[in-house]
Amino acid sequence: MKQIDQFFHDDLLTMKTSPMLKIRYKSGYTCRTKMRVLVHEPEWQNGTVDIHLQAGVKFFYRDMVECIRYLLRQKVFAKDLVFEPSCEFDREGCRVYTEMHTAECW
Description:
- This protein is of the alpha+beta class.
- The chain has a domain at 1-39.
- The N and C termini lie far apart (49 Å).
- A hairpin with a 5-residue loop joins β3 and β4.
- It has helices at residues 2-9, 28-38, 64-73; strands spanning 44-51, 54-62, 88-89, 95-96.
């Protein structure tokens, strides 16, 4: 944290040197707080299970619905999301199956 504070204190990211970045904070604490807001991932859960010849094996998992909600909120994926089936064809006019949404059953 001290090194991050020093980085901001050194004024390497001023509006003169990096006008595109538009960084408006000057401390590691503020930087970390802003990053935590951006990365609100689903919480990890854990449990134990008894398997053949071994009891109490610990495993970790995340709620599937929460994971889907998390992924759908990511703006970087927005242009690649597909919500309906589609038919794709190659240059010769033959049907091409490249993704799940290009198949008949989807």
